[in-house]
Amino acid sequence: QLQLVQSGAELKKPGASVKVSCKASGYTFTLYGISWVRQAPGQGLEWMGWISASNGDTNSAQNLQGRVTLTTDTSTSTAYMELRSLRSDDTAVYYCARGSSGWPHDAFDVWGQGTFITVSS
Amino acid sequence: SLELTQPPSVSVSPGQTATITCSGDKLGDTFVCWYQQKPGQSPVVVIYQDSKRPSGIPERFSGSNSGNTATLTISGTQSVDEADYYCQAWDTNTGVFGTGTKVTVL
Question: What pLDDT, on the 0 to 100 scale, is given for residue A104?
Answer without folding.
Answer: 81
